[in-house]
Amino acid sequence: MIIERTNNEIIFRLPNNVNIDDLQDLTDLFEYKEITKNSLATQQDVDILVKSIKKGRWAKTKQQLD
User: What is the domain partition of the chain in residue ranges?
Assistant: First the structure.
């Protein structure tokens, strides 16, 4: 593996036998870090949002089943 830094990017060079799914997971992590780097949300904020979404989703699913 080779990691190279240029003026405006970092380049990872890996052998072509590296598992592509592992690379996608790593890419997703980097993307998440980039998207959330300026976020002021706390874990409690996220938990409240997730709870609200799940509650709404269950109500919608229940309505469709009835």
Answer: 2-65
Secondary structure letter of residue 54 according to DSSP: H
pLDDT tens-digit series, residues 13-48 = 999 999 999 999 999 999 999 999 999 999 999 999
Q: What pTM was estimated for this model as a whole?
A: 0.57
How many angstroms separate the CA atoms of 9 and 26, rounded? 17
Contact 39, 48 (CB under 8 A): no
For 45, counting Cβ atoms within 10 Å of its Cβ (0-12 exposed, 13-18 middle, 19+ buried), the class is exposed
